[in-house]
Specification:
The complex is a heterodimer of chains A (about 450) and B (about 475).
Chain A lengths: L2 H15 L4 E17 L2 E19 L2 E7 L4 H17 L23 H4 L3 H17 L3 E17 L4 E16 L4 E8 L7 H14 L9 E7 L1 H13 L4 H5 L20 E3 L21 E5 L2 E2 L6 H7 L21 E4 L6 H6 L3 E5 L2 E8 L4 E6 L3 E5 L2 E6 L2 E6 H6 L1 E12 L6 E17 L2
Chain B lengths: L1 H14 L3 E17 L2 E19 L2 E7 L4 H18 L16 E5 L11 H16 L4 E19 L4 E18 L4 E6 L6 E3 L4 H6 L1 H17 L1 E2 L4 E7 L1 H13 L4 H4 L29 E4 L20 E6 L2 E2 L6 H6 L8 E2 L8 E2 L3 E4 L6 H6 L3 E13 L5 E13 L2 E7 L1 E6 H6 L1 E4 L6 E10 L4 E9 L2 E8 L6
Parallel strand pairs in B: 4-6, 9-19, 10-17
Antiparallel strand pairs in B: 1-2, 1-5, 2-3, 5-6, 6-7, 6-8, 10-24, 11-12, 11-16, 12-13, 14-15, 17-18, 18-19, 18-20, 20-24, 21-24, 22-23
Classes of the chains: A alpha+beta (about 450), B alpha+beta (about 475).
């Protein structure tokens, strides 16, 4: 890792090379390691040291981008030259508001030395516990344990310089029998916060109680969703509609619904890059400070997150959610999402259900239709029939086709505990509770 | 380069590795995106680095770095060995790589026009012309176009004596028109969805695709879809799938379940496993007599076309499904040896900083004998569906559900009214056994899938899938209830 001074030096080197051109530099360096296990053995174990520089060169209203992982003298020369060449070839961009001016941002603690120093041997010893416990039960343990450090800096020729260093740790395991599986995951920026052995034991227990699943007819059922399943609802609603770009283009589930109550009054959703209970990041990829955004309040659609481009077009102020310049077509997106906790324990969610399904997790979910955020996907790693307020027997995995907006409209109870999870796509964190939803549409089942 | 790579192999062996390989990858890409007449992205990207993979006492380790210096080469090689020793704390039964791989040589994608030799202005002009044509259609809210050019130089060496060098060139491009109505959003894409068609070839393919020449039609179809009748709800009928949709059907329901690492559980915690377990090999009816599927890395244009895979195994062609029978897997050296077979060259890494995994090369449905016109004329009732819009399949690759951008009713052997929001669902072997006709070579296209995710840390692979339209009987359609 280069540290704040090292990052500043590299960024200054780039800005100096740009001469009189207006330039923005995005600096990202990482040292990541991941231990992967399957069949109760470590089968893949990898480490990566990488760094990337991205420049946005402005020549009047024309913009050129260039990206490189070379930080030597020749690499920096080529980077700036490529950005300049692209700007010269480009057409004028009437939408880009110019580089931002410096703004104070709050530094946030998200670095843990123990996580940065966590060794391959330490990861292997942690994984060994889960493999041993799985093996003792005649089960098949698999999963990953990753740790790493990332540095992000943004600088521009208007004087912006923002720097953030963070660590990350994530453990996930799927434990399988011949016809069942259980999954657990823990994420955070302190490796010590992840109870690997407990998560492994819980996954093992779920795999054991999930054996010999029965079949159930497709149809509408009340469901109790664990936080792993709730996470998918939030991720999809984010990707397909919590950013202003989707609203601007008329394809957000928020379109024509701003100010309306479209979800249960129990639902509060917000994004807060400064909250250390998530995976905090104090500024966006233009160096603009992040602000808390209340996206849904008591079921009412309050509004999306903005960057400067969409804010400018829609008469709003940026909320500090600009994506990297190369991902501009995606528009701004929430990155540190929270759903408010309720008051019910998971047992109470189950006890309140006469007949329904307990869903551990959704998988391979994809958008079927944008306006109501209709999603199809499968259940995975444990579905159980709830009868008279008790879990009875496991069910084979089901396919659902369901509007996620409608699902959150039908929320009847919210769990009292939240869990922090990092998205499989990386960089996006959610802290979410379990939910009880009055009806959920299952459209098929698997073999 | 040779000296640096040898240094890595020597360092790894000195540190205790029984086997080691190194890949150096120097890649360059250019990406242009235009939206509503604005050039949103004009980016040149470069990435250089190396990865060292080692086997120590039957356990794997891998380390990588962007700094291609003698000092880093040695340090990273030692780090890979250290990681392998940690893997050894929870090791399995050991690793048998089968016969030694000693490939030597060089390979380059054949191109007529190097895409990097075409000026940025000329490339941009294609997208702006297409944008302008889409703009002629009333009702189009979002117009998008993009072009991608990739050149990847890759060097591979192992401790068994292999040394290969290859240059892979990819060219991609496409347009999307999106129309927005009162409560409806519809998009049409060309040549296919998710942004673009992509192949191993040069700029000549962009000229063939003629994006501007297809832009107005694409726009008109998107607008027409807003008011088209919805796909019938929950009926069982005959469907004919267009080649671009079928390409993804092959990818998801044949390509992934035949990856032998999945079969052995390597992806269990993430991408899932497979219903095509080893006892089914050479004894399972995957599809009807009309269904033959091949994995190859030699056909022109395929995104899985190369000289050698990332273990140095030469490109080749192997049957996966022959006349409906399941006969082959996609294999690495390690997984193949577990079945007493030899790798068919399917180990691929997305870049220098990732280990190779068993990946699809070009997994293609072989052409049949039908003309599309004759096939439609031979169909009394059904739906023709084209261009993927959504896709989902379970973790063993049985239960799938797909949606397409556009559909047309088939009635009495003719294409009829346009249908929107078409979906169909099924169980993989039942579906492929219901296939009773595949169109001929004239309708067969090598489609590119440049967004195939697998592995942790995540890897995005580029795979090829040749397909022509085909007919399936008794398929459940209209899963999505709509107004």
């Amino acid at each position: 890792m280069l540290g704040q001074k090292g990052a500043e030096t590299v960024c200054k080197d780039v800005l100096t090379r740009a001469g009189t051109d207006q330039v923005e530099v995005l600096f990202m360096v990482e040292d990541q390691s991941l231990t992967r296990f399957a069949n109760n053995t470590i089968h893949q174990n990898v480490a990566e040291r990488n760094g990337r520089l991205m420049v946005r060169v402005l020549q009047g209203k024309r913009i050129g981008l260039a990206t490189s992982n070379r930080m030597d003298r020749d690499g920096l020369d080529a980077l700036v030259e490529n950005g300049r060449t692209n700007a010269e070839a480009s057409a004028e961009d009437p939408d880009y508001p110019g580089l931002p001016e410096p703004t104070e941002y709050s530094a946030i603690e998200a670095f843990d030395q123990a996580t940065a120093d966590f060794s391959p041997e330490a990861r292997a010893r942690a994984v060994a516990q889960v493999c041993r416990l799985s093996g003792e039960k005649g089960l098949n343990g698999s999963g990953t344990f990753s740790t790493g450090t990332s540095e992000v800096a943004v600088a521009n020729s208007q004087g912006v310089f923002a720097y953030h260093i963070s660590t990350n740790a994530d453990f996930q395991t799927v434990v399988m029998s011949g016809d069942s599986s259980g999954r657990e995951q823990g994420s955070g920026w302190r490796v010590a916060d992840i109870p690997v052995e407990f998560l492994g034991e819980t996954a093992i227990q779920k795999a054991e109680v999930g054996r010999s699943p029965g079949k159930i007819d497709a149809g509408e059922y009340p469901v109790v969703l664990t936080p792993y399943a709730t996470e998918d609802l939030l991720n999809m609603l984010n990707y397909y509609g919590m950013g202003a770009q989707t609203l601007l283009e008329g394809r957000s589930w928020m379109s024509d619904r701003l100010g309306e109550r479209v979800m249960s009054g129990l639902i509060d959703i917000w994004d807060d890059g400064l909250d250390p209970n998530g995976v905090p990041m104090p500024f966006d990829y233009e160096g603009v400070p992040k602000r808390r955004v209340d996206i849904v309040q008591k079921g009412k659609v309050n509004g999306p997150v903005y960057d400067r481009i969409t804010g400018g077009k829609m008469g709003k102020t940026t909320t500090g959610h600009a994506p990297p310049a190369t991902m501009r077509s995606l528009g701004p997106m929430a990155t540190n999402l929270f759903m408010a906790r309720g008051t019910a324990s998971t047992d109470e969610l189950i006890r309140s259900t006469d007949r329904g399904l307990f869903v551990s997790r959704f998988w391979y979910t994809r958008l079927v239709h944008p306006r109501d955020c209709v999603i199809t996907g499968m259940t995975r790693d444990g579905v159980f029939l709830i009868k008279d307020g008790e879990l009875t027997y496991p069910i084979k995995d089901l396919r659902f086709t369901q509007s996620y907006v409608e699902a959150l409209a039908n929320v009847e109870m919210v769990g009292s505990e939240t869990r922090l999870l990092v998205s499989e796509f990386g960089g996006y964190a959610t802290r979410i509770p379990a939910l009880k939803i009055g009806k959920f549409n299952f459209t098929g089942s698997t073999v | 380069m040779n000296t640096l790579m040898s240094r890595a192999l020597d360092s790894a062996q000195m540190a205790g590795a029984q086997y080691a390989d190194i890949r150096v990858v120097d890649s360059r890409s250019e990406n242009i995106q235009v939206k509503n007449g604005v050039v949103e992205t004009l980016n040149s990207s470069e990435s250089l680095g190396f990865g060292v993979r080692v086997l120590v006492d039957g356990a794997w380790g891998f380390a990588s770095s962007r700094e291609l210096t003698a000092e880093q080469i040695e340090s990273v090689s030692r780090r890979a060995v250290e990681i392998a020793r940690a893997s050894g704390l929870v090791r399995g039964e050991g690793v048998d790589l089968g016969p030694a791989v000693k490939s030597l040589g060089s390979y380059q994608t054949p191109v007529e026009i190097d895409p990097f030799s075409v000026s940025l202005e000329e490339r941009l002009a294609v997208l702006l012309a297409a944008d302008s044509e889409m703009g002629r259609v009333d009702g189009i809210r979002v117009r998008q176009g993009n072009l991608v050019s990739i050149r990847e130089n890759k060097w591979f060496a192992n401790t068994e004596g292999a040394f290969t060098e290859q240059t892979i060139i990819e060219t991609g491009g496409g347009i999307i028109a999106t129309a927005v109505g009162e409560s409806e959003v519809q998009s049409r894409s060309y040549p296919t969805s998710f942004g673009r068609q992509q192949v191993t070839a040069g700029w000549e393919v962009v000229l063939e695709w003629d994006l501007p020449g297809n832009a107005e039609r694409v726009g008109n179809e998107a607008v027409a879809l807003l008011t088209a009748d919805p796909c019938p709800t929950d009926v069982t009928t005959t469907i004919i799938l267009g080649g671009d949709q079928l390409a993804l059907q092959v990818h998801e329901s044949c390509g992934h379940p035949t990856e032998l690492d999945r079969v052995f559980g390597s992806e269990a915690a993430y991408a899932g496993t497979s219903f095509l377990t080893p006892e089914k090999l050479d004894g399972f009816r995957y599809g009807s007599d009309s269904v033959s599927i091949t994995a190859d890395s030699v056909r022109p244009y395929g995104l899985g076309t190369f000289g050698w895979d990332d273990e140095g195994v030469p490109a080749q062609s192997t049957p996966i499904v022959k006349d409906g029978n399941f006969v082959g897997y996609l294999m690495s050296r390690e997984t193949a040896s577990r079945l007493n077979k030899v790798s068919n060259g399917c180990m691929r890494a997305s870049s220098w900083n990732r280990i190779p995994l068993v990946r699809m090369t070009n997994v293609s449905l072989e052409p049949g004998e039908w003309d599309l016109e004759d096939l439609i004329a031979d169909t009394d009732e059904g739906i023709y569906m084209a261009t993927n819009r959504s896709w989902s399949i379970d973790d063993r690759r049985y239960n799938f559900q797909f949606g397409t951008e556009i559909g047309h009713e088939i009635k009495n052997g003719r294409l009829g009214r346009m249908l929107r929001n078409c979906t169909y669902t099924g169980i993989t072997p039942e579906f492929w056994n219901s296939c009773d006709a595949v169109c001929n070579e004239k309708h067969w296209t090598m489609w590119g899938t440049p967004n195939c995710g697998k592995g942790q840390p995540s890897q995005i692979a580029h795979t090829g899938h040749g397909a022509a339209p085909a007919r399936f009987r008794n398929v459940r359609v209209g899963v999505f209830k709509q107004q």
